[in-house]
Amino acid sequence: MPNLRVNINHKLGRQGAINRIKHLLNNPSASISSEISELKHTWIDNSNEFNLLVRGIKVSGTMKIENDFLSISGSLPILFYPLKKQIENIIKEHAASLLI
């Protein structure tokens, strides 16, 4: 499976970014919850391992939150490979708007 890695800068500090991400994961918006299901995630310090279904297709990865950036990495199903850059850009846009 193709690898995905996205880094997003922020100015919230580690705990501020973690709090926003936790809020989103525990209270997904209607636009997000219509696209994803079976979200499971586990926090270990400043890292979050997640598994979910996007339109029925399994996606998993890790988020690591640092003082000034968020790193998201994972594996994409081969079906999504032609859309890899587009997916990376969507993740960057949504994450950046969350971490303003």
Description:
There is one protein chain. The protein has 100 residues and is of the alpha+beta class. 33% of the residues lie in helices and 40% in strands. It is built from 3 helices and 5 strands, in the order E-H-H-E-E-E-E-H. It has a single domain (3-98), classed as TATA-Binding Protein, CATH 3.30.310. A 5-stranded antiparallel beta sheet has the order 1-5-4-3-2. It has helices at residues 13-26, 30-33, 84-98; strands at 3-9, 36-44, 47-54, 57-65, 69-75. It is globular, with a radius of gyration of 13 Å. The termini are far apart. A hairpin with a 3-residue loop joins strand 4 and strand 5 (69-75). The longest helix is centred in the last third of the chain and has 15 residues, at 84-98. The model has no long low-confidence stretch (mean pLDDT 89).
Question: What's the short story on this structure?
Answer:
This protein is α+β, with helices and mostly antiparallel strands and 100 residues long. The chain has helices at 13-26, 30-33, 84-98, and strands at residues 3-9, 36-44, 47-54, 57-65, 69-75.
Task: Quickly list its features.
single chain, 100 residues, alpha+beta, TATA-Binding Protein, five-stranded antiparallel β-sheet, 40% strand
Structural class by SSE content: alpha+beta
Number of helices: 3
The level of helicity is: 25-40%
Counted beta strands? 5
Tell me the count of domains: 1
Q: At CATH's second level, what is the architecture?
A: 2-Layer Sandwich
Strand order of the largest sheet: 1-5-4-3-2
Order of helices and strands: EHHEEEEH
Estimated radius of gyration: 13 Å
Overall pLDDT confidence: 89
Largest sheet: 5 strands, antiparallel
Distance, first to last CA: 32 Å
| Oligomeric state of the chains in view | single chain
CATH topology: TATA-Binding Protein
Q: Which range does the strand content fall in?
A: 35-45%
